[in-house]
């Protein structure tokens, strides 16, 4: 299985937990190795309370944590920077992808984004919940779209064959990306028809992603899944059902958001819950659909070939 979003790097930067095992983490290396997840995307997320002049250094620190705590000490964990890296993974190896959640750490300096891409970032979220020089976020009252600088960012991502991530992006920004980006992903968003949270995708947005042959990472955030105090795996499966009804079977993957959430779906308290997800999928869908959602869609659409 492949998971397109988790915030382990943020937790390791903030608390210096033991990456090998910690009860405080929803994702650690021991849980990962005991889960069915073969490839994991690790988000570089800099909280917006970090002073602007320090944000890029914090982002680089998280990149350093990625390599020094996850990659270098663990020869069975391979950094994934291209589709060929995925295809060359051996049976006993795991893959790790570096991503960026929000472009606020780069300010208005595209060279900082180039540096992060050179470090291995392969999915770039234009915003988190805070607006920045690239675009407005979904929480903005202005609902402005992608800025002139943001257009330059998207052009760079197109040239570098990097995914442009629309999760957290304003509605206008979403459609700007749909128009401008070659490789579109909503790394962790669910269906607004099932749960009308602003972070979820409307029917029109889902159709737009289908038309652009993009990806949608079904997320385990409880408040994006159901308006209830207790949320269960069948509640999450309803979103998958709906996406498939909308014709998005070739667009679906997973974006758990583990370690970026406090509350969890019952049975999905940590990465080991992917065992339960896999069982539910096997019971509800054909083998070909399960293969698409759990891994093949992500691999097929990975932008950079080599």
Automatic annotation (TrEMBL):
Q: Which residues form a coiled coil?
A: none
One Pfam family linked to the record:
Peptidase_M19
Q: Name one GO molecular function term.
A: metallodipeptidase activity
Lineage, top-rank taxon, reads Bacteria
PROSITE patterns referenced in this protein's UniProt entry, alphabetically: RENAL_DIPEPTIDASE_2 (PS51365)
Q: Name one GO biological process term.
A: proteolysis
Which protein are we looking at?
A: Dipeptidase
Q: Which organism is it from?
A: Amphibacillus xylanus (strain ATCC 51415 / DSM 6626 / JCM 7361 / LMG 17667 / NBRC 15112 / Ep01)
């Amino acid at each position: 299985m492949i998971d397109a979003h988790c915030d382990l790097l943020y937790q390791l930067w903030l608390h210096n937990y033991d990456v090998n095992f910690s009860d405080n983490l929803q994702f650690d290396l021991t849980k990962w190795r005991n889960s069915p997840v073969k490839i994991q995307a690790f988000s570089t997320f800099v909280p917006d309370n970090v002073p602007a002049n320090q944000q890029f250094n914090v982002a680089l620190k998280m990149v350093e944590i990625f390599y020094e705590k996850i990659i270098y000490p663990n020869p069975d964990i391979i950094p994934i920077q291209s589709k060929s890296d995925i295809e060359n993974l051996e049976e006993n190896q795991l893959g790790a992808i570096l991503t960026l959640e929000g472009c606020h750490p780069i300010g208005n300096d595209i060279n900082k984004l180039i540096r992060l891409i050179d470090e291995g970032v392969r999915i770039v979220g234009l915003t988190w919940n805070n607006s920045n020089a690239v675009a407005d976020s979904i929480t903005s009252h202005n609902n402005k779209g992608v800025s002139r600088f943001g257009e330059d960012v998207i052009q760079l991502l197109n040239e570098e064959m990097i995914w442009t991530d629309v999760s957290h992006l304003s509605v206008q920004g979403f459609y700007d990306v749909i128009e401008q980006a070659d490789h579109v992903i909503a790394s962790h968003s669910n269906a607004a028809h099932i749960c009308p949270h602003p972070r979820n995708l409307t029917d029109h947005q889902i159709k737009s992603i289908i038309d652009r042959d993009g990806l949608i990472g079904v997320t385990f955030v409880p408040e994006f899944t159901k308006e209830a105090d207790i949320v269960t795996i069948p509640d999450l499966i309803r979103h998958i059902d709906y996406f498939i009804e909308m014709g998005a079977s070739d667009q679906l993957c997973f974006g758990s958001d583990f370690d970026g959430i406090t509350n969890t779906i019952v049975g999905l308290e940590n990465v080991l819950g992917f065992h339960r997800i896999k069982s539910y999928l096997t019971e509800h869908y054909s083998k070909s659909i399960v293969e698409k959602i759990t891994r093949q869609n992500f691999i097929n659409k990975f932008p950079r070939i080599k």
